[in-house]
Design a protein that fits this description.
The chain has 87 residues and is α+β, with helices and mostly antiparallel strands. It has one domain: Winged helix-like DNA-binding domain superfamily/Winged helix DNA-binding domain (Arc Repressor Mutant, subunit A), CATH 1.10.10. It has a four-stranded antiparallel sheet. Helix 1 crosses helix 2 and helix 2 crosses helix 3. The relative contact order is 0.20. Pfam families: DUF3253 (PF11625).
Length: 87
């Protein structure tokens, strides 16, 4: 895992920890929070944020949802959200 990926993973988990158990975040929330500049360079972190989210799904840490329902990577089209895994 690269350094930006580690930063994104930590950011996703931290953002979720700061929210209610039932809350979710957008991958852009993580990209913006992990980006270290003050311009729109966070957009370059969107795809890495999604990749990191899928790794966290595989690890059982989070779920990726669309319209509030968990989806698999092959089904994730359009806007998605990330939430803590339901245990």
């Amino acid at each position: 895992m690269t350094d930006p990926d580690q930063r994104l993973e930590q950011t996703i988990l931290r953002l979720l920890e700061q929210r209610a158990d039932t809350s979710s975040i957008c991958p852009s929330d993580a990209a913006r929070a992990a980006y270290e500049g003050d311009d729109d360079g966070w957009r370059d972190l969107m795809e890495p944020a999604r990749r990191v989210a899928w790794r966290l799904v595989a690890a059982g840490e989070v779920e990726v949802t669309r319209s509030g329902q968990p989806v698999g990577e092959s089904e994730a089209r359009g806007p998605v959200r990330i939430r803590r895994a339901r245990r």
